Amino acid sequence: MAREITYRDALREALREEMYRDERVFLMGEDIGHYGGSYAVTRGFLQEFGPKRVRDTPIAELGIVGAGIGAAIGGLRPVVEIMTINFSLLAMDQIVNHLAKLHYMFNGQFTAPVVIRTAAGFGQLGATHSQTFEGWYAHVPGLRVVMPAVPKDAKGFLKSAIRGNDPVIFIEHSLIYRNRGEVPDDEDFLLPLEGAEVRREGTDVTIVSWSRGYYLALGAAEELAREGIDCEVIDLRVLRPLDIDTVVRSVQKTNRLVVVEEGWRTLAMGAEIAAAVQERAFDYLDAPIARVGSLEVPMPYARNLERLVVPNKDRVVAAVRQVLYQKQPVTVG
Amino acid sequence: MAKPIVMPQMGYDMTEGTILRWLKREGDRVERGEPIAEIETDKVNIEIESFESGVLLKLVAQEGQTVPVGQPIAIVGEPGEQVEAAVGPAAAADGKARREERAEQPVGAPVAQAVEAVAERAPGERVRASPLVRRLAAEHGIDLSQVRGSGPGGRIVKEDILPLIGRPAAVPQAPPVEVAAPAPPVAPAAAPRPEVEVPPAPVIPGLPEFELVDLSRMRQTIARRMAESHQQAPHFYVTTVVEVDAALALRKQINEQVDEEAEKVSITDMLVKACALALRKHRGLNASFAGTQLRVYKRIDIAIAVALENGLITPYIVDADHKPLGEIARLSKDLINRARAGELRPEEYQGGTFTISNLGMYGLVEHFTAVINPPQAAILAVGSIVKEPVYRDGGELVPVQRMRLTLSTDHRVADGVAAAQFLSEVKHLLEHPMLLLVR
Fold first, then answer.
1. pTM, full prediction
2. Active site residue ranges of B
3. Quick one: which of A229, A200, A203 has its CA closest to A217?
4. Among 3.40.80.10, 3.30.1330.60, 3.30.1490.20, 3.40.50.920, what is the CATH number of A197-323?
5. I need a labelling partner for A116 at 20 to 30 A (CA). Which of A98, A264, B92, B247 fits?
6. How far is A233 from chain B (nearest CA, A)?
7. In this structure, how many other beta carbons lie within 10 angstroms of the beta carbon of residue B112?
8. Does any CB of chain A come closer than 8 Å to the CB of residue B158?
9. End-to-end Cα separation, chain B, in angstroms
């Protein structure tokens, strides 16, 4: 059986179920206890599980992640919340130089099963709070990086991440917490932390995205379907390890690829995907691969300007037309 | 705006010209009609005039460089202008490569609608096509130079060639004749080299469905080398008739005397020796054409065309004029046996200064012509031995065993008389076969 619930509730269920299942699981982060979390994912958890397992921390990301790593080495299963991915930069050293490498550098003597939950997103939050850095983490061997788009994946991935021994960077998105979707009832519903998924089959062009970008891709596909353009939409779901096989298979069918991401295009996931696809499917490409991303500026605060910077459905539609060699007035940025 | 000055066509058969001397330097002012360079064509040296007024921004071609007609040799414009725009991508100083690309486009455009499309593409301009299109074109034998591109900048995209491929059920285009054409009786050195990209056969509507058969590496090599030979070396042919009763008698006598099977002499062996000796006398045919020079080889290596199941190969006997007939017999048997077994080493077939192709031993043809095995200068085609009535001087009619030899010669290397003299020497040696034993 399955129910339709929100992305936020899928996360809450995953955390609650795993906390009941395994007493070594605990949460720590800024404002997750008394305040209930900036995006209300852990609302009520402090009351339900007590201060020992739901710990409010100082505003000190490097310390939070470091403490999480220590706890994990000591045998606990911490789920560390970094309020937004913007602040995770402060914890970069712990994440990249320690968390990703402990198991490797100590010859497998330790595992560090830390799950770092954090959120991307924007919405008049200003230049320093509107960024997305999934590509930075996907760059690092030793980390798993997931960025689920739908509630089912959010729940299945989070439960697997907590139970597994690999460090996982689990990236949510502030603008999809209220999105709804079916989630299985099973308390042991787990999803392997790998593999992209073709969510809409099509023949004319492949659109690859993840997280909120997936919804832009789907919206564009639906709009284009009215004109008879049949888009295949792939939700990448996991950014490291990258499932390029699924993308390559799709491109072999459609011969055209559009990658949609929320961040800047330079040296980002889309660049990696485009490079990998041309390595693997060069002889199947009928058009240059198009990438849709944010304009390369610090995010403006003004709402009208912000709208111009972030990718939207129209830009995805324009990119699809571009790879289909259709005429259009809009330039893809 | 900066404009290119191109190599002009001075006369209808001029295809390229060589810059002998620039009369202007970069930065000089030139007026329309003013001489700017002296060029050399096949026929004359001539001054060429600027078609534009302005400043000579760039000399694209250097003195001594040969440039195809229509390719830029210089750029004229206003001081400080961008030169690249006028030259276009890939044009700069690379006239030779571009000419070769143009030469690859086959003449004649079978698809009517494509003709105008081709006209849109400047001569020698690179065909723009998506990677997918290039793969499909290669798989289906579509000549992209004949396809109109609807994508940006004329890029050929999938849509443009799908009609040429047809629906999955009804594949077919391209002339089956080109696939199935019988190999000419020729003698190439079928060396396994990296395949050279050959433009696929053009699509001709109206032909029936066909099956695509991949060519073996050997067939590809034969195709490439024979086409190259027939296109580049102007062949001419001279034929003579040789009376071989004496040669056959001598051969019989030798073969009755030798014990070893390996030493038994064939007519081909006698031809090898005869040709080698004749080449020693007429060295001019033991040569290769090399542009403005001739390479006259200091050793005579005679190659023998050996038919294989689906191809042929030409192992050769080194220094054949200095080897006794018995040794030639031994070597040729060994080479032929190992050629058929596919056991030749590359150095045994990559080479040879002259080739003999003997279809006569199959008893099938009395006369044929062969395609020269490049870079050699000549090849001898040997027909079967036929007993024919011949009038002797006294008027009596006698039965004589005769064999027709036809020499194909590269006219760049030698003329008719030289070929005739060589052939008559071969004839003389075979008709007085004791000479093969003493020389």
1. 0.53
2. 411
3. A200
4. 3.40.50.920
5. A264
6. 21
7. 8
8. yes
9. 74
